[in-house]
Write a structure and sequence with these properties.
- The chain is mainly beta.
- Helices cover 5% and strands 48% of the residues.
- The strands form 4 sheets. Strands 2, 4, 5, 8, 9, 10, 12, 15, 18, 20, 21 and 22 form a 12-stranded mixed β-sheet that branches. The chain has a 4-stranded antiparallel β-sheet with strand order 1-3-7-6, with no helix packed on it. Strands 11, 13, 14 and 19 form a 4-stranded antiparallel β-sheet that branches.
- A hairpin with a 4-residue loop joins strand 16 and strand 17.
- The radius of gyration is 17 Å and the shape is globular.
- The N terminus is likely disordered.
């Protein structure tokens, strides 16, 4: 079974610093509402963070690309980026405000390709190519489609209305081909960002004992996870991308996907 070097480095760090809580890096493309009925400008926050435990915030550089796919067409969102400072529970770091224009009905698949981030504790770069979803008027158009990214997770369940207590299945792709044996870290957004305050709201859950929640993709790239709680859930396929080096150091090029789960009322 394949485990990326990044996971081994984390394991070693956990051994050396057992008193510190284990935490997973997650790139966010966050908007508080994912199911909309009206046209307008939807606020988005791009944050590189540990949202499960409202942990350390990493400085985010200007992304290499930020856009949305709607009805198969690309909407460039780079011009909407505005630098901000986001204050987590333990520190403050560079992040971005942005705007997603919502017009016609259908899915808006936001894609962030960040600049690689150097993680000093692991001495490697991390680049999390991230997808998040917004829908207008319950019309499905794009959520199930491959986007041709270097690496991506394809959802097999509609990502804007997952039922809490059901399961979610995704498929990890590398250059369009199934990626087998990839470690997928799973994160709950326990502390959602406050759009106006540029800081987290109160946490609604605590991290699981034993470290990060992990699944492994099967021989066809599939993984399934039971969704126990309503809210935002993130999935990061570690090192699933084809690019393995940046500026002379190892690069973990990850595919990240965010979904939204709801309780049945």
């Amino acid at each position: 079974m394949f485990f990326p070097k990044r996971s081994l480095a984390l394991a070693c760090a956990a051994t050396l610093f057992a008193s510190l809580p284990a935490s997973a890096h997650f790139q966010l493309a966050y908007t508080p509402e994912v199911n909309l009925s009206k046209a307008g400008e939807t606020p988005v926050k791009l944050i590189f963070w540990h949202p499960f435990e409202n942990g350390h915030v990493m400085n985010m550089a200007q992304p290499q690309a930020f856009y949305a796919i709607h009805r198969g067409k690309k909407i460039d969102l780079m011009s909407t980026l505005q630098p901000i400072s986001f204050k987590g529970a333990s520190n403050e770091a560079a992040a971005f405000d942005a705007t997603l224009p919502i017009k016609r009905s259908g899915d808006y698949v936001m894609v962030v390709k960040p600049e690689p981030y150097l993680e000093p504790s692991e001495d490697i770069y991390i680049q999390q190519i991230t997808k998040s979803f917004v829908n207008k008027n319950e019309v499905p158009t794009d959520w199930m489609n491959e986007l041709g990214l270097e690496t991506e997770i394809i959802p097999l369940n509609r990502p804007t209305n997952i039922v809490a207590g059901s399961t979610f299945t995704g498929r990890v792709l590398t250059e369009g081909k199934p990626a087998a044996g990839v470690e997928i870290e799973i994160e709950y957004m326990a502390a959602e960002p406050d759009i106006a305050a540029n800081s987290p709201k109160a946490s609604t859950a605590e991290p699981m004992p034993g470290g990060a929640i992990v699944a492994i993709s099967d021989e066809n790239g599939y993984f399934t996870f039971g969704i126990p709680k309503a809210g935002f859930w993130g999935f990061a396929a570690l090192g699933s991308g084809p690019v393995k080096e940046h500026e002379g150091k190892e690069l973990s090029q990850d595919a990240v996907l965010w979904i939204r789960a709801f309780d049945v009322k």
